[in-house]
Amino acid sequence: MSDLPLLGRGRAADVFDLGGGRVLRRYRTTQRASVEREARAMRHLREHGAPVPEVFSADGVDIVMERLDGPTMLDALKSKPWRAGALGRELFALHERIHRIPAGDIDLRRFSDGDSILHLDLHPDNVILTATGPMIIDWSNVALGDPLADVMNTWMVMVTSSPDNVPRLIRPVLGRIRRSLTDGFIEQTPLDNDARRWIGRVCKQRLLDPNVRDDERVRVHALAAQTGVTATNC
Predict the structure, then answer these.
(1) Could you read off the pLDDT of 45-76 as tens digits, one per residue?
(2) Which CATH architecture has domain 6-66?
(3) Cα(57)–Cα(50) distance, rounded to whole angstroms?
(4) Would you say the CATH fold of 73-233 matches that of 6-66?
(5) Engineering a disulfide at 143: which of 95, 111, 194, 220 sits with its beta carbon 3.0 to 4.6 angstroms away?
(6) Is the CB of residue 134 less than 8 Å from the CB of residue 93?
(7) What pLDDT digit, counting tens, does each position of 124-160 carry?
């Protein structure tokens, strides 16, 4: 891939420009079943009107898909931090849009009871703000289950993650921006017993992710303690 321009490097995959409006997303570990599942889900979602890039092929550790132009929602947050609350609400609306799409008989792994399609990593860095509207990327964790699990997973990730390349000017107020973003996202979801039940599950899943950093693990444990989830459960 050294002859292809590198467009981006995430924690688990690299994205290369193939030209002709296409990109190659290549995972660094072998996960054929995951790649095929991701492509299958994206095609199904797109057929039902979801804001998802077109998939052209999927094989081995590679997915070839439509190139999207525009900043991520996270980039928009860094450049316009005063929009944090509005971006949080927009992110919640994207969850609702995905959860309304019928799963039908699509073959996906099951995360929990429930028949909604879950992204399970739908945070601001996985939303591209294109000229025609937001588009959702990175469907590697896609599964079927309870929509509340998806919402609580995103909330947990945003509360505990360490964003890269934070502009120097907003570092002193990063905590305030994070709270505005997460408050906007969660304002329609009461943190009741149902939500707390999912916090334990998504915390546990987060800690099993090898790409999670040490400081993020500390925050995950702190969040669990704050919401009454015991360490043994997460």
Answers:
(1) 999 999 999 999 999 999 999 999 999 999 99
(2) 2-Layer Sandwich (3.30)
(3) 19
(4) no
(5) 111
(6) no
(7) 999 999 999 999 999 999 999 999 999 999 999 999 9
Tell which wins on pLDDT, 165 or 82.
82
How far is Cα 25 from Cα 146, in angstroms, rounded to an integer? 28
Higher-confidence position of 34 and 92: 92
Closest CA to 56 of 70, 67, 72: 67
Write out the DSSP string of 106-117: ----B-SSS-EE
Give yes or no for a contact between 92 and 122, defined as CB atoms under 8 angstroms apart.
Answer: no
Q: Report the Cα 106 to chain-centroid distance in Å.
A: 20
Which residue in this structure is represented by tokens 């900043």? 71
Query: Taking the domains of the chain in order of start, what are their residue ranges?
Result: 6-66, 73-233
**What radius of gyration do the chain's Cα atoms show?**
17
Contact present, 121 and 111 (Cβ < 8 Å): no
Residues 222 and 218: their CA atoms lie apart, in Å, by 6
Q: Domain 73-233 class?
A: mainly alpha
Query: Do 200 and 229 contact (CB within 8 A), yes or no?
Result: yes
Are 73 and 127 spatial neighbours (Cβ–Cβ below 8 Å)?
yes
- HSE-CB of 7 using CA atoms within 13 angstroms: 16
